[in-house]
Write a structure and sequence with these properties.
Number of helices: 13
Helix content: 10-25%
Shape: globular
Radius of gyration: 27 Å
Structural class: alpha+beta
């Protein structure tokens, strides 16, 4: 008896700081006086069936007996026993967000949403479908499983959440840190968050390739970012961001040397009777509808953007402090909820960089990195910065028949203060290379350039309007047990006749997602007409717009800077094809994923195939 007490005392001395099982890594658990097999079994139990609510739950693990448990009691605990536990936990979660933002496919515009969840976690019992879908790697099946679990009774601890039917392990691990449990929400407090970043290496515009040619950077400053967010409880928040691209000089408002940045004031969680105002945003904001066929306001293209896994897409309007400039929105946005109806609308007035023509019309928007009016061959004949004023208004309304069964309608209209007239041969292509346009075998997709949208129109809503563009769409989501079905259909109203879409170009994306605990399958079908020239389309494709066109061959252009029409295009290319993907975590340390895609490029009917198999060990 004396020897046993001595051993326990020695263990307590060696492990002066108790190992917190619910927070411990595998390495920390292996440091305990147990075998490697016991350590792995304990770690797996905590991860897959935990967290532990009492010490004696360890006896549920076949590798453990009461004697081993008694030896561990003095050196283990289930919770952090320090006064700054909440602070440590918050720091850990912030590190998780930093990791997310550097992961392939992470949507920078959602960072503020994640920060809100971290600093002011909401009660999981009150979380809505949209709250759940705003988190990375949470599928519609996961979101619906939590909504159904709410109706079964209060979720008082993470293990009760883990028990939700059809909730995957992957989805659980990516949502568990962002909610509180029990009946009461934590007291709302104020928070301030600041981040600054300076880079001296070129950024990428997509996850597969670098931004096209860039100006020499030896005499220019690097990429600089400042971002600040102040949140006052659950009522309002104020955000400011300043982004200077690599190769740009500092930008100021007028001559008063006030940095030209993004500013957003957001009022949240307001009520007018039964009408709930989720967000009222003044200033810079982003907007997303459906699966990105009709509208998504980001400057960046991501290949194979399915909306699942890391390629998260969340419907709604959010304050925007991201680096998107060309398609950033500035004005007012309102998001509301009433019964089974969710809706948001917005009005934006902003300047756009554009390739202008000699007759004061413009050929196309252009996303520049860096933003400059100086071409690679010297000053441009026609400037490009802030050349077109765009008024855009639109919105989305969704009706939820049941959890996960949603039908939505979307639309937007853009008005421009210049006529839209794509004069590619005259303005963009060099005079001695005009014969290569639409004739070169190496540029077989030039028909996509020829199908660019043109407009000359007026509007009673804005007296300066000289052109317009209007897009409508329907989207649908259905979750049936562990199967999620999604689809969106969009139409570009090219002839201006709202009631007749028979001759208008259209686009369609449909997907099916089958989910098991550690295994999932995804199938995505897309079909885009060549004339569906929607600059706010961000739906699924392998290639970005104008790949395989003369825009890629900058030596054919009037100035190589016009190559940004291709290299920085955020719009997907017109494709028709089907994509298969699966992910299987067959062990704690191993994940295997497979992708297969077969598609036809609509511009030239070229067939493509892509197959990828990945095995990850961690």
């Amino acid at each position: 008896m004396f020897r046993k007490g001595l051993i326990l005392s020695l263990l307590s001395f060696v492990f002066a700081q108790k190992i917190v099982l619910n927070e411990a890594s595998l390495g920390e658990i292996k440091a305990l006086p147990i075998t490697e097999a016991q350590a792995e079994a304990l770690y797996d139990y905590v991860i897959f069936q935990g967290p532990l609510t009492e010490i004696y739950e360890i006896l549920n693990i076949p590798e453990f007996d009461i004697e081993t448990l008694n030896q561990l009691k003095p050196i283990i605990s289930l919770t952090i026993q320090t006064q700054d536990a909440n602070h440590s936990r918050l720091q850990d979660r912030y590190r998780k967000v930093e990791n997310w933002t550097s992961t392939e496919g992470a949507n920078e515009g959602l960072i503020e949403v994640w920060l809100d969840r971290l600093s002011e976690p909401i009660n999981v019992n009150h979380a809505t479908y949209d709250d759940l879908m705003s988190l990375q790697n949470v599928s519609p099946v996961d979101a619906v499983s939590v909504i159904k679990r709410q109706k079964e009774g209060s979720i008082n601890y993470p293990k009760a959440l883990r028990g939700a039917t059809n909730l995957s392990y992957w989805g659980y691990k990516n949502m568990v840190d962002f909610f509180t449990y029990g009946e009461d929400d934590p007291t709302k407090t104020s928070h301030f968050w600041y981040n600054t970043t300076y880079k001296t290496v070129p950024s990428t515009n997509s996850f597969d390739e670098e931004v096209g040619s860039t100006t020499p950077l030896s005499n220019h400053p690097g990429n600089l970012q400042h971002k600040m967010i102040y949140t006052s409880g659950g009522t309002w928040k104020l955000g400011y961001a300043y982004h200077r691209k690599m190769g740009e000089q500092n930008r100021y408002i007028s001559q008063v040397y006030i940095p030209e940045g993004k500013l957003a004031l957001t009022f949240r969680n307001l009520s007018l009777g039964k009408l709930k105002i989720n967000r009222l945003i003044l200033g810079n904001f982003s907007a997303t509808m459906g699966q990105g066929v009709v509208f998504e306001s980001t400057d960046f293209f991501a290949p194979r953007r399915s909306g699942y896994g890391w390629s998260r897409r969340v419907v709604g309007a959010f304050p925007d402090l991201s680096q998107s400039y060309e398609y950033g929105l500035n004005g007012v946005a309102l998001q509301t909820h009433l019964g089974k109806v969710d809706a948001f609308g917005f009005v934006s007035m902003n300047s756009r960089d554009a390739v202008t023509n000699a007759d004061s019309s413009f050929s196309s928007f252009i996303t520049l990195y860096p933003r400059t009016d100086t071409g690679y061959n010297g000053l441009l004949l026609n400037p490009m910065l802030d050349q077109v004023k765009e008024m855009t208004y639109g919105g989305n309304i969704r009706y939820s028949f049941s959890p996960g069964m949603i039908l939505g309608f979307s639309s937007y209209e853009s008005l421009y203060d210049k006529e839209l007239s794509p004069q590619i041969a005259k303005t963009v292509i060099a005079t001695d290379a005009e014969g290569k346009y639409l004739t070169s075998i190496g540029n077989s997709a030039d028909t996509e350039i020829a199908a660019m949208y043109a407009s000359k129109a007026e509007s009673p809503l804005w007296e300066n309007a000289k052109a317009m563009r209007r897009v409508f769409g329907l989207d649908f989501t259905a979750v049936i047990n562990n199967l999620a079905l999604q689809a969106e259909y969009g139409v570009l109203d090219k002839d201006g006749i709202i009631g007749d879409f028979s001759t208008d170009p259209s686009a369609f994306v449909g997907s099916a997602y089958l989910q098991f605990n550690s295994l999932n399958f995804l199938v995505v079908y897309r079909d885009y007409d060549l004339g569906f020239d929607n600059p706010y389309q961000r739906s699924f494709s392998n290639y970005q717009r104008f790949k395989g066109t003369i825009f890629e061959d900058t030596f054919y252009l009037e100035d190589p800077i016009y190559g940004f029409l291709y290299s920085s295009s955020a719009q997907p290319q017109a494709e028709r094809g089907i994509f298969f993907s699966s992910r299987y975590q067959f062990d704690r340390q191993f994940v295997v994923s497979t992708d297969f895609d077969t598609w036809t490029r609509v511009a030239d009917n070229a067939r493509y195939y892509r197959s990828v198999v990945k095995l990850q060990y961690r």
